[in-house]
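Narrative of activities, Objective 1.

The group set out to show that a structural description can be obtained from nothing but a protein's sequence at a throughput compatible with the screening campaign. Below is one input-output pair from the validation batch, recorded exactly as produced.
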Amino acid sequence: MFSKKIIIGSSEVDASLRLKLSSLFKLTQDISVEEVEHLGLGKICRERGYLWIITRLELQINRLPNYLEEVTLETYPGKNRSYIYPRHYLFLDKNGEVLVKMIALWFIIDSTNRKPVVLDEMTFPLYHESRLDELAYPKRIEANEGAILEERRVRSTDIDLNQHMNNTRYIDMVLDLFSNAELKKKNFKRVVVNYSTELYENDLLILKGYKSPHIYVEGLANNQRAFEILIEE
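Output recorded for this entry:
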């Protein structure tokens, strides 16, 4: 188990002073990188040209942390299945109550050919843990086809160190479909994200889906599905 205490800052909350979903994703992404570096695996991956990529994630929300709230963020890796490396996350309040529970399915690709890599456990000494109350592997999203909601280009500020659109930006694109007044009325309880293909600068995204009774948005680019996001209240 790897953990750290954090204070929710002003840049991480929305107009309701609640932690933004994209900020939540960023915090989990950052602590994942911290532990990988702590284990010495980051250096090995950089030397070999390997990149860590998320393919799917799910989170259950009891309550989103508020502005200036101190929370403990915990993470630990689950047991891998072939080239899929699950990682679990918990956001805890000062009393140890679980605010958010999340699982992300990571895999590693070769930065040159963008194909998945199975790690040699002799070279990459990975540990794994399990807890009785952890989330299971997220399943594919079952949703009906919706209408076109918006078209959007991938911009330069969407791109991260892996040279593709960062996973935190997808959720912002979806929530940008709502006004602040609408978002203040939302009480998100479950979020599932499927990342299908990488997106690059200047890709044209067609966002299709629906906004009730729950939020479902799929992003289409280059004649294929790039991602799906399901948000339940």
